[in-house]
Amino acid sequence: MTNKLYDTSLSLLTDLYQVTMAYGYWKAGMTDDRQPSSDSTRSGAAEKEAVFNLYFRKNPFSGGFTVSGGLTNVIGYINNFGFSRKDLRYLRSLTGSDGQPLFEEGFLTYLANLKLSCDIDAIPEGTVVFPNEPLLRVRGPILQCQLLETPLLNLVNFESLITTKAARLRLVAGTDTLLEFGLRRAQGADGGMTASRAAYIGGFDATSNVLAGKLYDIPVRGTHAHSWVMSFDTEQEAFDTYAEMMPNNVTLLVDTYDTLEGVKHAIQTGHKLRQKGYALSGIRLDSGDLAYLSIEARKLLDAAGFTDTAIVASNDLDEIIINSLKQQGAKITVWGVGTKLVTAYDQPALGGVYKLAAVRQANHADPDSDPAENHTAVRWDYKMKLSEQAIKISTPGIQQVRRFRDERGFLADMIFDEERSADDLNEATTTMIDPLDFTKRRRFEADQPFEDLLVPVFRGGEQVYDCPDIHATRARVQEQLAGLHPGVKRFVNPHTYPVGLEKSLHELKTELILKLREGGRE
Amino acid sequence: MTNKLYDTSLSLLTDLYQVTMAYGYWKAGMTDDRQPSSDSTRSGAAEKEAVFNLYFRKNPFSGGFTVSGGLTNVIGYINNFGFSRKDLRYLRSLTGSDGQPLFEEGFLTYLANLKLSCDIDAIPEGTVVFPNEPLLRVRGPILQCQLLETPLLNLVNFESLITTKAARLRLVAGTDTLLEFGLRRAQGADGGMTASRAAYIGGFDATSNVLAGKLYDIPVRGTHAHSWVMSFDTEQEAFDTYAEMMPNNVTLLVDTYDTLEGVKHAIQTGHKLRQKGYALSGIRLDSGDLAYLSIEARKLLDAAGFTDTAIVASNDLDEIIINSLKQQGAKITVWGVGTKLVTAYDQPALGGVYKLAAVRQANHADPDSDPAENHTAVRWDYKMKLSEQAIKISTPGIQQVRRFRDERGFLADMIFDEERSADDLNEATTTMIDPLDFTKRRRFEADQPFEDLLVPVFRGGEQVYDCPDIHATRARVQEQLAGLHPGVKRFVNPHTYPVGLEKSLHELKTELILKLREGGRE
């Protein structure tokens, strides 16, 4: 299922520099000659094939894990990729510093006929992931990889962020009910839609967002607003009318005027509902001291025989506040979370990046030969971005992530290069090296159970992955969290889950750093 | 111009409780009988007409002002309002706690035929506004007002937030160039689109987001990424190739390997460009100590005769960092701002609310009589939400905002009730009272120049407002900021711009609070 808001071509939803770089590659003759109508006037330089990895450097919210999101929307985006005539007309109108067109007509023709032919591998949505692991790996003509950078980052960054936030809230809520109420404060219409979807996947039970319910098959829930109460002469009349109109859906908001008086009015309405064979489902608190008020409200409800009536709470909640309320013995079993969830208030962006990891001349000499053979015919030129800070140095390679586990859960993740590491992975023992301290090593025997996390999603631009539905992805998140040691899941100073580089990839990286630092790039 | 991503009906983009409340009003017979195909089985209660005000309680970013945004998208939303057959099919599928349908068929028929007939008044986009001022005022059948709450809040909250952030950045940037680079970290596709638009209105010069450029007529700008440099054997080859391919658009990113070495390579490319009659437009720094590096880069460029080559900087910039860099004498004249702007990182949500302020039985006794007369025929029942915190108590009334000014700028804003305050506004002196301290008063003489900020946008559901284009709105922001005292615009402990209630509205509010606190609602 795709995010239906994106079921249109959004190929210009990218940074201009992706288009100018694409133009540069095209004009320098480094594009895929096999595209239909490619321009014959270009110079004879060979097409460049590239590999980019999309990853982040730090778990959000000072936490110990991240939950991957966005893949469903990435697939929708790629399947709808293509430049419309209007898109090209707009690009034609752009000019450079001399007032001349920025792009030659031949390039626009090239874009008009462009069909994506990339291979994309990805970690399935709803997987726990860690810094430096490639969530997506894109391999193909460098021009295509580049055009995709911005939209892939946009989609993966935001959905992973909200899925992670929701998973954290599920960890503190235990078996309580979690409702997402954030649409009014979300960052735009689609900010709200995407957040509703990601919240459900991360472990929420329902949303107030009706359109998200409709488009994504998420349960919807809702009560009423203060304005309902205010629009009647008395709170009692407001409650009674609501219950009379919708007896099978009665959760009453009790804090419009005075919360505990409101609870008493709700109880009166509850008695009337009972006489008609219905139940008072819940009351909702939206202000004040939620610990105190919920305890007092529970006493009133229980004393009146409404032991099954749930207490719902909302009002700028997040995982820290819910945790604190539970420690204070608050009698709340349904939590409505809005702003702090849908905007990821304490860290509203995940800093995912998309880095070039290898490049080579494409080899299409014999179109009838086995493509797999072609792939290995030309050696990769491994690439990395240097930085003064070790954490900002990218890792080269056609990366895959191997997750080792035992019967209790996940042990460690090892990033390896699909070509360079192949021989070492066949040895009796595999060595994994900490990327920030090469003296920290772990060894895994050949019989250690593992799973390789990235799976093929596109091959030659065609989708080869059967995307699980939203409910399966939601279940996956909880299975994944169960595989994590509790120390990794705690909020304060979480244990760092071990992620390292396979030894031969580590050696490749070290070699490249030394070469670049010694001026090998001059 | 509308935000084209919304040019489809998004009528279910609302909270479920808006729909259940609408159902409650319909079922209780409090809906507009004049709608086509209204259901005849409903009880005989009279239709309720309501007034809601949309406002926020606190300026974002600990600042002294806010810039209003979102009205263009609100207009697009309302003009496209309407429930599709698929929407109704979805609502029909919802069930209550007893497994029975949540909504009767007659209500769905009512929604299918519903045409908005509200009056909406709003403060034009790009106006400086302050806490408690109604940015939008919606008046009409309470069912309709309620359905609109969530989408109006979503659109106004987010766009006002980003417009305000951009305006703050413009204040520190002075005459420097500001570029918005945030798409990859924005909260979803539309989060990026809306932010690009709001950033331009708030004072940015251009965006990297090509689709925003196309749809909103915003200038687009871009350079190249580290990956361009990395995909060549040497940085010099990468720069030379870029300049050769696009000589009229050359800004080179110099920090892929070693920043100052990168500047020297850019200078070499600049010499080659000159020989061909082109110029090196700029170099870009994206990491490291931007103050130090820009000063050193400037020296190198100037020594080589490239005094016109601009230094562009990016890397997690915001108004505080730019201010600091300028104080350190950084030689940067073009600022690329991304994540911190488009997510409003330090406060990612504006807490706008939508509160019922008055209600009355609608009077449609004589459809041939003058509607203006009908409007005054039945007295309003003024409404407010109580709270223990004075700042959270809403203000009743059919509110309008009068902004007094003199030749130097804005003096104060006074909120008044269009009906209650009418007589007092005709007196020789008008009194305005501080809502948090009734002993603080200001008096304005009848000849004091003023402007009433809310303008009619919809009448009877029909648009009556000619929405200015994006460039006019952008110009308005700067005119508005010029009207503010510098103390209100400073970032640290800004002066509080005076906003008060007109005396008779203050008295109405006080009277209502006392009545509610004394249990008048029981």
From TrEMBL, chains A, B:
Q: Name one Pfam family in it.
A: NAPRTase_C
Write down the chemical reaction(s) this protein catalyses.
5-phospho-alpha-D-ribose 1-diphosphate + nicotinate + ATP + H2O = nicotinate beta-D-ribonucleotide + ADP + phosphate + diphosphate
Say if the entry is tagged with keyword Transmembrane helix. no
Keyword Phosphoprotein appears in the UniProt entry: yes
Q: What does this protein do?
A: Catalyzes the first step in the biosynthesis of NAD from nicotinic acid, the ATP-dependent synthesis of beta-nicotinate D-ribonucleotide from nicotinate and 5-phospho-D-ribose 1-phosphate.
Name of the protein in question? Nicotinate phosphoribosyltransferase
Q: Which GO terms describe its molecular function?
A: glycosyltransferase activity
Pathway of action: Cofactor biosynthesis; NAD(+) biosynthesis; nicotinate D-ribonucleotide from nicotinate: step 1/1
Residues in Nicotinate phosphoribosyltransferase N-terminal domain copies: 12-157
Q: Which SUPFAM superfamilies match?
A: Nicotinate/Quinolinate PRTase C-terminal domain-like, Nicotinate/Quinolinate PRTase N-terminal domain-like
Q: Organism source for this protein?
A: Spirosoma utsteinense
Q: Where is the Nicotinate/nicotinamide phosphoribosyltransferase domain?
A: 178-359
Provide the record's note on post-translational modification. Answer: Transiently phosphorylated on a His residue during the reaction cycle. Phosphorylation strongly increases the affinity for substrates and increases the rate of nicotinate D-ribonucleotide production. Dephosphorylation regenerates the low-affinity form of the enzyme, leading to product release.
**Residue limits of the Nicotinate phosphoribosyltransferase C-terminal domain?**
400-509
- Enzyme Commission code: 6.3.4.21
Q: Which family does it belong to?
A: Belongs to the NAPRTase family.
Q: Which UniProt keywords apply?
A: Glycosyltransferase, Ligase, Phosphoprotein, Pyridine nucleotide biosynthesis, Transferase
Per its UniProt record, what CDD domains does this chain match?
A: NAPRTase_A
